[in-house]
Amino acid sequence: MIQIWDLLSALLLARSAHAAATLASSFAGSTSTAVFPPPGVSVTSDASFFPDATQINVFGPTPTGDEAFAIATAPVSPDYANVFPLVEPATSDNKKFDVIHSWGKPLTSSNLGLTNSSAKIPDGCTLQQVHLLHRHGARYPTSGSAPASFAAALHAAASTGNLSASGPLAFLNTWTYKLGAEILTPFGRAQLFELGVGFRVKYGDLLKGFTDLPVWRTTSEERMVDSALHFAAGFFGVQEYQNDYQQLIEIEAQGFNSTLAPYDQCPNANNAIAATATNFTNQWASIYLADAQKRLAPHLKGFTLNATSLSAMQQLCAYETVALGYSAFCDLFTEEEWKGYEYSVDLSFWYNNGPGNPAVAAQGIGWVQELVSRLTQTPITEFASTVNGTIVGSNVTFPLSQPIFADATHDTVISAIVVAMNFTSLAATGPLPGTHIPTNRSYIVNQISPFGSNMVGQVLSCPASSLFFRFHHQHHHPNTHPLAPQ
Ligand SMILES: *[C@@H]1O[C@H](CO)[C@@H](O)[C@H](O)[C@H]1NC(C)=O
Ligand SMILES: *[C@@H]1O[C@H](CO)[C@@H](O)[C@H](O)[C@H]1NC(C)=O
Ligand SMILES: *[C@@H]1O[C@H](CO)[C@@H](O)[C@H](O)[C@H]1NC(C)=O
Ligand SMILES: *[C@@H]1O[C@H](CO)[C@@H](O)[C@H](O)[C@H]1NC(C)=O
Ligand SMILES: *[C@@H]1O[C@H](CO)[C@@H](O)[C@H](O)[C@H]1NC(C)=O
Ligand SMILES: *[C@@H]1O[C@H](CO)[C@@H](O)[C@H](O)[C@H]1NC(C)=O
Ligand SMILES: *[C@@H]1O[C@H](CO)[C@@H](O)[C@H](O)[C@H]1NC(C)=O
Ligand SMILES: *[C@@H]1O[C@H](CO)[C@@H](O)[C@H](O)[C@H]1NC(C)=O
Ligand SMILES: *[C@@H]1O[C@H](CO)[C@@H](O)[C@H](O)[C@H]1NC(C)=O
């Protein structure tokens, strides 16, 4: 018996000693990428072998059903909560805590604190028109952001031959950076396809009697074009969408006017005024990640884990999950630390892209002008914001009467628009402190602009008030923002 114990403890000791001593591979932290089809492969395809469906023309019976109108006919507004095929991450302590909902920017749900509100059409009212503003779907991190910097620093350390990770961090010894930048992930494509499907089911009935093709807008960035096309494919179906609407693509680049990318025309959008959040987020990171640093730093030799790298590791959890379906970084952190991470995103948005930044409302106002133009059917004639006069000056590119409007944009633009629209309920609890998470804060970014989030304005005709307009903002939990009557 004693011998077995000795043997066991010797084995255990050997194992932990071995773990502590394991040197990282020299490739740890290096970037790995793949392209399909591989570069240089040129397939000479003979189209005669693969005629398309219209050439085959044996479709079988194709009677269509009626348009759906779930927003008016269902007893409740449909909910969206699908994260398939992502593996739901756990924390290092509370295994039941919903990590995905603390990612802020990358993904999640929306409940703007308006109890019992619903996007459903009130009894007695009829819906005349909808105005959709949505974000693109889940993407890789933006260029040069924290996850890639962390990987590069780790790889530099591994290259010296002195990096060694153990315990919960042992996976870093052979971990490589598999994320690209900027473009949608496969899951991000699914989010927009599902948004399109959901929109057809809720609002398809509005198409009846409309004899033009809808003009829907996005910007020129790859993920923006992809998001718009996946939305349309979900809405119309992949065999039809290219014929059933017009896609307007606004140039997103410095110096070009576009209300969907207003920072490119606003001098204060990309300077020190725009970056006021750094002090707050740095202060908060040094507080909420202090325990994680104590707990995890001893498991990594040859690399200093501090608030910067730990925050990057939390971002890696989110980005690897939405890109690769699973991430080993997630359960390194506790429930408390995930709540801290969520709050760091709130701080960043409040001071960079929200009510705490004096340059933000000016970036949101251009889209609001376009909305008012559409609601009042009055062309825009004054150009002092980010509105593009060429685009709105034509009733071809900017029609004023459509049953369904759909604009694709970015998270920082949605957050600017809700400031310009003076949605004061979001700012009700005041400026966010860098020292602690206030109880009952009203500003939570994962309720404003997670991947695939969307705001829908409804023009309703109700007996009591003729026409009126209201907004609901939704991801998983739709909520209604009453707005001014039209
Ligand atoms: C919300 O609805 C529930 C159930 O109908 C009701 O008990 C509650 O009072 C409502 N809350 C508000 C603020 O209206
Ligand atoms: C690696 O560690 C050894 C021992 O601590 C040290 O002598 C050496 O300078 C280190 N090498 C690098 C490149 O940091
Ligand atoms: C307006 O938008 C169009 C299309 O994106 C672009 O070609 C044009 O340069 C823009 N005008 C300005 C002033 O930005
Ligand atoms: C941020 O902190 C730096 C250094 O402490 C300080 O100089 C700067 O004024 C602060 N900026 C803001 C916007 O608080
Ligand atoms: C963490 O360490 C890196 C690399 O030394 C450094 O650039 C960064 O400023 C540090 N972050 C903090 C919060 O000290
Ligand atoms: C572009 O926006 C600027 C304001 O930022 C405005 O002065 C200019 O007239 C706009 N140009 C067009 C063609 O819309
Ligand atoms: C669009 O503008 C053209 C030229 O300004 C005008 O002739 C036409 O009637 C307009 N169409 C609509 C639908 O307003
Ligand atoms: C924003 O809304 C608040 C509360 O409804 C109101 O007091 C304030 O005047 C509004 N601000 C603007 C700029 O309209
Ligand atoms: C929470 O904040 C809201 C404003 O957003 C306020 O109406 C409410 O009274 C607050 N509740 C508590 C418990 O402080």
Automatic annotation (TrEMBL):
<protein>
    <submittedName>
        <fullName>Acid phosphatase</fullName>
    </submittedName>
</protein>
<keyword id="KW-0378">Hydrolase</keyword>
<dbReference type="InterPro" id="IPR029033">
    <property type="entry name" value="His_PPase_superfam"/>
</dbReference>
<dbReference type="InterPro" id="IPR033379">
    <property type="entry name" value="Acid_Pase_AS"/>
</dbReference>
<dbReference type="InterPro" id="IPR000560">
    <property type="entry name" value="His_Pase_clade-2"/>
</dbReference>
<feature type="signal peptide">
    <location>
        <begin position="1"/>
        <end position="19"/>
    </location>
</feature>
<keyword id="KW-0732">Signal</keyword>
<dbReference type="GO" id="GO:0003993">
    <property type="term" value="F:acid phosphatase activity"/>
</dbReference>
<dbReference type="Pfam" id="PF00328">
    <property type="entry name" value="His_Phos_2"/>
</dbReference>
